[in-house]
Amino acid sequence: MKTAVVTGTSTGIGFDTSLHQARNGYRVFAGMRNLAKAQPLLTAAAGLPVEVIALDVTSGASIDAAFLAVAAGAGPVDVLVNNAGIGGATPLELTPEDEHRTIFETNYFGAVRCMQAVLPAMRERRSGAIVNVTSVSGLIAMPNQVAYSASKWALECAGEALAHEVWRFGVRVVNVEPGVVNTRLGEAVAPL
Known about the structure:
Helix 3 packs parallel to helix 4 and helix 4 packs parallel to helix 5. The chain is globular. The C terminus is likely disordered. By secondary structure, it is α/β, with parallel strands linked by helices. It has a 6-stranded parallel β-sheet with strand order 3-2-1-4-5-6, with helices on both faces. It is built from 5 helices and 6 strands, in the order βαβαβαβαβαβ.
């Protein structure tokens, strides 16, 4: 059974992606920053190979611990889905710098850290896939969402460049740019 790690799985796209992968032959490690939110996913995944793990993409120590636990329990990661994200909806002049940095820390740097955690083994095995959930805002800037749009543009660019770096090693990198999806992303503006 192949192994998948999905970040940001307490609701929305990450929640549904975890279930979809588990129904289609993957052992899924569903990363959540707050394990108190795990029960809805565990209930929905009853009988499916889904394990919830602590994974805060803004913490290098959390990422290291999570990927070490996955490797010890299931071996190398075959698929990484970078889904964890936070939003923001204020005009630039009203967006405090710390909020701007928090959005980038989660949406961009968190995904980069996770990619760096799986890439050496994927390259060595000459197989693997990385899916970055960016946004249509990563292609078309949205007013009053400057920090969010900029972070998604950065992730979009990183994914495109990385795809060129690793294709010769058999590793595929895909960016997915959903439009508006009914998730609770907007509630996650403040540091979580």
